[in-house]
């Protein structure tokens, strides 16, 4: 990439950090709004799915806020990467099992197969986005 392209990308780095932070805070809050929807996507081999939903929700909120604060941005970005890796089994489970989401609108109850499989490489994109702030 040339210097002009890099400076254009760098110009968006700060606003995208706030966008990412808000995205994770909203996602984390949703863990408390519809916990049963999240609990249903946790693979059966994991114990206490509801507890895991609440813990991951807290983590998303804390890390989302943390990535928006310059002082904690690096640590929070590493935490987001770890969280994305930790929740990957749930995404694989959703893609490979006939999961029906509980307590969501009928349009969201059964996500399309394409959307579920596209979600897997999207984890890599989200990890790369968080990595940008490490």
Automatic annotation (TrEMBL):
<dbReference type="Pfam" id="PF07681">
    <property type="entry name" value="DoxX"/>
</dbReference>
<feature type="transmembrane region" description="Helical">
    <location>
        <begin position="114"/>
        <end position="133"/>
    </location>
</feature>
<dbReference type="GO" id="GO:0016020">
    <property type="term" value="C:membrane"/>
</dbReference>
<keyword id="KW-0812">Transmembrane</keyword>
<protein>
    <submittedName>
        <fullName>Uncharacterized membrane protein</fullName>
    </submittedName>
</protein>
<feature type="transmembrane region" description="Helical">
    <location>
        <begin position="76"/>
        <end position="94"/>
    </location>
</feature>
<dbReference type="InterPro" id="IPR032808">
    <property type="entry name" value="DoxX"/>
</dbReference>
<feature type="transmembrane region" description="Helical">
    <location>
        <begin position="21"/>
        <end position="46"/>
    </location>
</feature>
<keyword id="KW-1133">Transmembrane helix</keyword>
<keyword id="KW-0472">Membrane</keyword>
<feature type="transmembrane region" description="Helical">
    <location>
        <begin position="52"/>
        <end position="69"/>
    </location>
</feature>
């Amino acid at each position: 990439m040339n210097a002009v392209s890099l400076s254009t990308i760098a110009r968006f780095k700060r606003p995208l950090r706030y966008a990412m932070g808000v995205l994770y805070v909203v996602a984390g809050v949703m863990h408390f709004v519809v916990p049963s929807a999240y609990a249903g996507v946790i693979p059966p081999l994991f114990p206490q799915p509801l507890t895991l939903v609440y813990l991951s929700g807290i983590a998303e909120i804390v890390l989302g806020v943390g990535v928006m604060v310059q002082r904690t941005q690096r640590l929070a970005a590493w935490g987001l990467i770890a969280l994305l890796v930790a929740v990957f089994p749930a995404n694989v489970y959703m893609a490979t099992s006939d999961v029906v989401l509980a307590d969501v609108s009928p349009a969201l109850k059964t996500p399309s197969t394409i959307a579920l499989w596209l979600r897997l490489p999207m984890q890599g994109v989200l990890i790369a986005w968080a990595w940008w702030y490490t």
